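Work Package 3 (structural annotation) set out to generate three-dimensional models for the target panel prioritized at the project kickoff. During this period the team completed the workflow that converts sequence records into discrete structure tokens, so that structures can be stored uniformly alongside our sequence database. As a representative example, we reproduce one entry of 485 residues exactly as it appears in the project archive.
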Amino acid sequence: MSTAARDVVVNIAQAPDGQSAEITRVFEKQQAQALKLRRASAEDRIYKLKKLKQMVLDNSAAIHEACYKDFRKRSAEVDLVEVLPIIIEVNEAIRKTKRWMKDIRVPTTMAMLGTQASVKMEPKGVTLIVSPWNYPLNLTISPLVSALAAGCTAILKPSEMTPYCSQLMEDMCRATFDEADVAVFQGEVKTSQDLLALPFDHIFFTGSPAVGKIVMNAASKHLTSVTLELGGKSPAIFDKSANLKKHLGSLIWGKFANNGQTCIAPDLTYVHADIKDEFLATAKSKLEEMYGKIDSIKDNKDYCRIVNSKHYDRIKDLLEDATSNGAKVAFGGFSDDSEDFMAPTMLTDVSPDAKMMQEEIFGPLMPVVFFNDVQEVIDDINSRPKPLALYTYAKDEDFIEKVLNNTTAGGTCINTAMMQYLHGNLPFGGVNNSGIGSAHGYYGFKSFSHERAVLRDRFSSSFLMMPPYTPFTQKLIDWTTKYFV
């Protein structure tokens, strides 16, 4: 798409006049609805989830078209990374929402003999879902699944960077849901500011750590709880025992799918020096198996584009910065400004001071660092902010355990990449700089729920220790204290 055409399209997502008042109107409508939803049954929630699922299935062709217009993304990849994760998520919620809603009985402690305790899962209320542009439908609708399963209302704020996908989501949600349950507002910074100024009961944000801090600061003004799905430099580590022919393909796919625009994509790869040549040769071979010869990859319809010229220029600058300071291009390294095309690129001898070694790349550039002692790698990882993901490749179990026990990350895969995202029974989330809270399955349901403590007195003797503090009361307190000491 030409720059001129893209500028015209972006106008779709610009905030119209008077949107602030409209946002407030819908928010207040959802506040009233949220009070009613506290009494909603599991069947009511499941009914909405089924409508959401059918909405996605009925609009699959439109989803393919919108993703192609925004990314030039092949329909097969759209199904794999946009549609399939949503369907997996909503199917899980349809099957298990009734079970998740049940009160959880908890054991009685010795100090609480004569009481009965439980945890009641309550909907938090009116929620805001602010989503990014890299997987626009998946990262908007999957959190919505959790919100609906938990019995919340939701206002969605998709990214203005993907105007076709954002417009489609607004159209789909308007046709499927009452705005009291689900509403979509498009726009740029002003729209986000208007939304963040409101006293939501929970905010679910997916994006960069820098913007995550802004969201958290805004939420603090109302003491609103947050789930922050962020990012960082997710490392991959290849031991000399790794089976490169079997497992290296997962690294190549994980890095270059969606043109590297994935929050859990490997962002920095450490490779044992003993397998340096084999690693580089196998990486190139695996890449060409997936996308064809590198010099003709621009014509391969399976390889999509950078989202817009702004991000393309940023990635191109990262490459130029690295090569001007001595980095060597193992393969790739070429681009086309007219199409926001950047070839899948692997680099070696990258200076530690290069910008791509300091910030999340979020594009198809892969710096490779060779090591002799894994402790060097562990020390380097631990000197950086905690990553959203960490991938380790090895047959040597001692190597794997050393990496696991001496690093931390939001999630980890062994001998594969990115698959943790699709596992519905695992929490998906970061740690500190890479995120706060978890998503997916029961963990997503919990993020949008308040765990309310409920205690019933049956026949406890607590009243015996209340004032007035007579000698008998004092003896009873002394006896109780000695028992627990």
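The chain has 16 helices and 18 strands.
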